[in-house]
Here is the input.
Amino acid sequence: MKKFILKRILISIITLFVLITVVFFLVRLMPGGPFMDPKMTPTIKARMEAYYGLDKPVIQQYFIYLGNLLKGNYGYSMRYTNRSVNDILAASFPFSADVGIRALVIALFFGLTLGITAALHRGKTPDFVCIFIAIVGTSIPDFILGGLLQYFFGIKWRLLPVAQYLSFQYTILPSVALGLGLMASISRVMRSSMLEVVGQDYIKTAKAKGVSQFRITAKHEIRNAIIPIITIMGPSVAAILTGTFVIESIFAIPGMGKYYVESINANDYTMILGMTVFYGAFLILANLIVDILYGVADPRIRVGKKEAA
Amino acid sequence: MDNDNILEVKDLSYSFHTYGGVVQAVRDVSFNVRRGEILGIVGESGCGKSVTAQSILKLNPEPPGFFQHGSILYNGQEIIRKTEHEMRQIRGKQIGFIFQDPMTSLNPTMRIGKQVEEIFVGDRSMTSAKVKARALEVFQQLGITDPERRLHQYPHELSGGMKQRVMIAIAIIAKPDLVIADEPTTSLDVTIEAQILRLLKDMSRATNTSIILITHDLGVIAKLCDRVLVMYGGKIMECGTAEDIFYRTRHPYTSGLMHSIARLDMEKSEKLTPIEGSPPDLFSPPKGCPFAARCEYAMEICNEQEPEKTDISEQHNTRCWLEHPFAPRVDLRYKGGGVHAAV
Amino acid sequence: MAEAVQTAKRRDGEIPKEKFRVVGKNIHKMDALSRPSLSYWQDAWRRVKENKVASTCLIVIAVYILLAIFVPVFSPYDMAQQDVSAMNQSPSAAHWFGADALGRDMFVRVWEGARVSLTIGFVAALINAFVGTVIGCIIGYYGGAMDTLMMRVVDVLYGIPSLIVTMLIMIVLGRGVQCLIIAMVIVGWIGACRFARGQMLQLKNQDFVAAAKVLGVPNKTIIFRHILPNMLGLLITNLTLAIPGAIFSEAFLSFIGLGIAPPASSWGILAKDGIAALRVAPEQLFFPAFFVCTTMLAMNLLGDGLRDAFDPRLRGI
Here is the structure.
């Protein structure tokens, strides 16, 4: 188990390095480049020089950048010239985290429940509801769903607010728009996982032992069926994260996603660089945690094979 | 119900609803199991032996399975009419079941100890100390090495033979009167198989526990069983003591089985004589005897009507038109070498 | 032999003696084969045809493709043609889907957008599948150091958020259809590669491969003419299911402002414009949304149907 965790950590660190390098050099390639713009004001130019060492060779710039990163310094935004990327991240991250977590909770809670219920009532109404939601949910892109929800609940029927993020009501539409697609995927995976587990031999053994159906479902079926769900948690977090880009734009939530999209459209290269590295690191960390969780959940990985005749 | 019998099955018919229609997996099967005896059920894959066995504990998935008619009396009680709740009192505690594949029959995410002790959940008379003691006792009895440690291990840490011993432990831990073993050694090495069979026989003799042993291997039958049922196409073809079946064979199918296995005393140049063909389609079972299409002694009547049961002796009976006075006299006993079919 | 004792009653009287003539085995009834034998592909095609849902989806997609091809050709409007007098007009006889904020005809824009989105979806998914499969097959077959290296690389690359990298590449490359496809392919071939490698590992140890080797068949032939056809079913299924993902990616990127550049039309751009016009003319969102969603839905259902059609365990049902 320890070996397993160490290996995962090592790969994560390498991945992070590769990401930073790739992003760094990509930004260098961007058209116009931030560092040669004649329209730059002297203030920015001075900051850039100090921060990036622009007159030095590229490789050295790279290491300077790495050094800065290790100190936790992401540099300064070009658009909001008096604000550092760190400041903007600190201010906007809580909003994104809030929407993201709500969406994740919605997706997991309803997705798992729906999937389990569908599998236990195969061929009956809950099953059809689940399949319907699963198929439709995975076919509607989250931004289109966001727009539709905005229109019907916000504009037409005036039930819920559609912009900004001020109180609980404001969180409903964005988190639903963000989480529904994931909920559909989770319910689908859970359903097929449950169906597969239910047909396994050890479930028959449990029945032959006189174990009650409730206990069989809770302790045998769900316990085993949930393991594949853990493996999709990595991509799920990534999906929610990229979803925040569009959802925050549509619902005018001052989160990281909105800033990210704006900086892309405004060619604010330092922001792009800094936020990309942050996002990347976040996802790599999330994947690492998921990998470890998986190792813990599945005893076949947690406890190695020690054969005894 | 005869008090000597722990189980009486009469005219049991069990079928399944499927996409393509109704499959009659078990048709009019009748047999008894006496206290302390080991009854073998032998037949090809798909002949209905597993379905029959699982019907006794109502383990077949329903839907799509259903009892078409018949009765199963266990200690005088009618199983078919029992509720799930009542069945749960019987399963594991009064009747134990050993499944075929130990690799997949244990929950991979639950410790062995918990799986073995799960039988006693809800039984207030068994405290956890008593349960653990009993588990260790049974492990000891079955030759499971290092029993304390085993209780904390996960299934994937054990070898196949060890896992099957755990399955047997689960089946006998509550001291049932009857144990049903569905091909318990099919997926094991021959040497391990010998050990497991020995264990089962000793256990049965020591505690006077009846065993229904399902297998397709005649060698296993010879080693263990007091009486034998031969099944084909969902029906019982022949029934008798092991000696009757091996030395006084009266059914062409049984005879075919005898002749088709490789024996130590065969000449090198002797060819194996398999039974040509494959088992019948149970969607639309054949009109007459299910074995007629593959039987070299088949007569016209065999293709038209099902044969009636003929008692040859008190314990030995067969279902075959060859027993009819009009039929030619045929000797179906195995010819060649006096050596037993031994494993 | 002792005399048998009859215990059961005889049915409807005596049975005539002739019935007891030995006729022996019946070769025709011996092996019960009640269904005709079909080849793998015939069986799969039959299953797809019988699956009404999948067949409907196939037809829907075909219709969309035809509309995408022909509507822009026959429409009286050009997609960039602005008409100030028709701004945000609701659907009417002149403009079947209405007009957008700049007075452009929505109907032609939807189907021009369809051209772009569908092309990108199919082409990107196809290239990903092709490149990924070829590389995956070769790596998986030959194994060795190259395989280990490759898998380490893939492990690392898999951890990098693909959409983000695609976005960055787009910033570098600029906007437009070709740039988009290139960016999507640079990131997307890895998934197909992983899958193909996994399949190759499973199949290369099977006996038919050993048999081919023994017969002296060259490796390249083994890979492409023996093993690959066995994967083809699953590959096609994956391809079908990858297309909605590609369509989504294009829509997402265009929505953010990175994909297709206006005045060109794509479903992503139309979604973006539609959301901007929600208060004024919501149908500008509804129309493109409807077609995007139904296309993705149809491809998903078709993919499911294909998966069932190619599943060997469902054979003969």
